[in-house]
Design brief:
Number of domains: 2
Mean pLDDT: 93
Structural class: alpha/beta
Radius of gyration: 21 Å
CATH class of the largest domain: Alpha Beta
Strand order of the largest sheet: 3-2-1-4-5-6-7
Distance between the termini: 15 Å
Number of helices: 12
């Protein structure tokens, strides 16, 4: 009989980094474990149907959303308490869970506390992003974070993250943690003969269209590139969860970039896109890891990332630049490598097999 695992998602199950990591676990370990999942969205999302194919149940505990900003803020601060009772009740009604694997940021406090009360023996917290320091926030947020962090440290049996920086930012510098590198699908992202003939300034950026992913900055870089290389293009791949695309489209019009920019949806065949591209832009404001950098390097793309991205993402093809350097310096870096042939990089450290072996260890 398979042991039961309750996953708590980073949010929903859209085609972004966190849910993609969770689906790698479900695909790879479904013969050994029975998975159910808790999400914070009411609607069906990209991975829901695939998750159900493996026999799992999806339980929903949606975030409270009203038209009043203050009420939303209060609901956000109280969400760990709501999740405590939701998780405890769910575990007791469903029964039999050996593991709870929480991926929902500071809200993990409520889930791990509820699981501990309900008697789940293995309680894992897993962070997928890097958090800004507490000192950058107001008193209320600092108190909220302190209480959540204290609860996580008391109730979790394993503290895991995608990088040392991500772990320290959530759990604290002195917490005993483990790094499990995010995995890329090495059966899809690999060097193909002929990829070296990609257009020299065909550039991609993959990730939801958001302020954190900073696609507006990439448009400024593109504008500088076009001043000397009219053949430069950028393809943006990702969803638009918060209306950021409208800001991008406005800037595209203002800068006259209509013929050099294209948008593709989240379910785009990324390996097929990368085979036609020579470079990747990744100017994130904050990043827990950035698995797309590994995917891109596995296919020979040269990558230009902000210095907010962990250095562990570099297997030979990443150049890190400060956002404060501005689009001019970024454009110079890109142009300096234009025309160089694509070469494959060794990304075996981040294979799915290595990742799944580490997950097996913490599941016990």
């Amino acid at each position: 009989m398979k042991e039961k695992v309750l996953i708590v998602s980073t949010g929903g199950m859209d085609k972004s980094g966190g849910p993609s990591v969770l689906m790698e676990i479900v695909r790879g370990l479904s013969r050994e474990y029975e998975f159910d999942i808790v999400t914070s969205t009411e609607k069906e999302e990209y991975f829901d149907a695939e998750f159900k194919l493996y026999g799992g149940q999806i339980f929903r505990c949606p975030k409270v959303r009203t038209r009043f900003g203050l009420l939303n803020r209060v609901a956000e601060l109280l969400r760990p308490f709501r999740l405590y009772f939701f998780t405890k009740s769910l575990i007791r009604s469903q029964g039999g869970y050996k593991v709870i694997h929480c991926n929902n940021d500071f809200d993990m406090a409520g889930c791990t506390a509820g699981a501990k009360t309900a008697g789940v023996p293995v309680r894992i917290c897993h962070t997928h992003k890097t958090w800004a320091p507490d000192s950058q926030f107001g008193v209320l947020t600092r108190v909220y974070r302190k209480l959540c962090r204290r609860t996580i440290l008391r109730c979790a049996t394993a503290l895991v993250g995608c990088s040392p920086v991500a772990n320290a930012s959530l759990y604290g510098e002195n917490a005993k943690t483990r790094v499990i590198w995010n995995a890329y699908d090495n059966s899809r992202f690999f060097w193909r003969c002929g990829d070296e003939n990609a257009a020299p300034l065909s550039i991609a950026q993959v990730g939801n269209l958001t302020e954190n992913k900073n696609q507006l900055f990439s448009l400024d870089v593109l504008k500088k590139l076009l001043d000397s290389r009219p053949d430069a293009t950028v393809t943006f791949v990702g969803g638009d969860p918060a209306g950021y695309k409208a800001l991008m489209q406005k800037k595209i019009t203002v800068l006259g970039l209509e013929n050099a920019v294209s948008f593709l949806p989240p379910d785009t065949d990324i390996p097929a896109l990368f085979s036609k591209c020579s470079m990747l832009l990744f100017p994130s404001r904050a990043e827990g890891f950035g698995i797309v950098l590994i995917e891109a390097q596995a296919m020979g793309l040269r990558c230009y990332a902000s210095n907010a991205v962990p250095r562990e993402t570099n297997v030979g093809g990443v150049q890190y630049l400060a956002l404060s350097d501005g689009p001019d310096l970024w454009a110079e870096a890109v142009l300096s490598a234009a025309g160089q042939p694509k070469v494959p990089y060794d990304c075996s450290k981040f294979s799915v097999e290595s990742f799944l072996n580490a997950i097996r260890e913490i599941y016990g």
